């Protein structure tokens, strides 16, 4: 008879999908890092991967909709490596895509689009203090 703890563990893995790691190259977003490795399930979407990486870097001053995840896939044609870069839709499942390719034949890159606008928000109306004016810069 199967142990109830083992059954519970098996059920959770099945309901969450296969678990694995993604290495997301981030040098375009945070200059002091090359990549960030995160643990995800096959049910995890591109949107949640982006949110997870940005939260690990504590980047909150930028709209998360300004970020895209790209997948570089390497294949062979006539004995030569051919690289194809794909922009992933926010509903795509990166770990599922990674599992479709041999190890080290694909990678993920986080990019920030150039479509944002820098906005200065003054808070003197929100928290008025005599003679003190604060503002925050937010990229939307």
Automatic annotation (TrEMBL):
GO biological-process terms attached to the record: positive regulation of epidermal growth factor receptor signaling pathway; positive regulation of fibroblast growth factor receptor signaling pathway; signal transduction
CDD domains in alphabetical order? RA
- InterPro entries in the cross-refs: RA_dom, Ubiquitin-like_domsf
Q: Which Gene3D superfamilies match?
A: Phosphatidylinositol 3-kinase Catalytic Subunit, Chain A, domain 1
By its UniProt entry, which Pfam families does this protein fall under?
RA
Q: Which SMART domains match?
A: RA
Ras-associating domain residues? 18-115
Q: Give the top-rank taxon of the lineage listed in the UniProt record for this protein.
A: Eukaryota
Which SUPFAM superfamilies does this entry report, sorted A to Z?
Ubiquitin-like
Q: PROSITE patterns annotated for this entry?
A: RA
| Alphabetized PANTHER family for the sequence | GH01721P (PTHR21298)
UniProt protein name = Ras-associating domain-containing protein
Q: What is the species listed in this Swiss-Prot or TrEMBL entry? A: Strongylus vulgaris
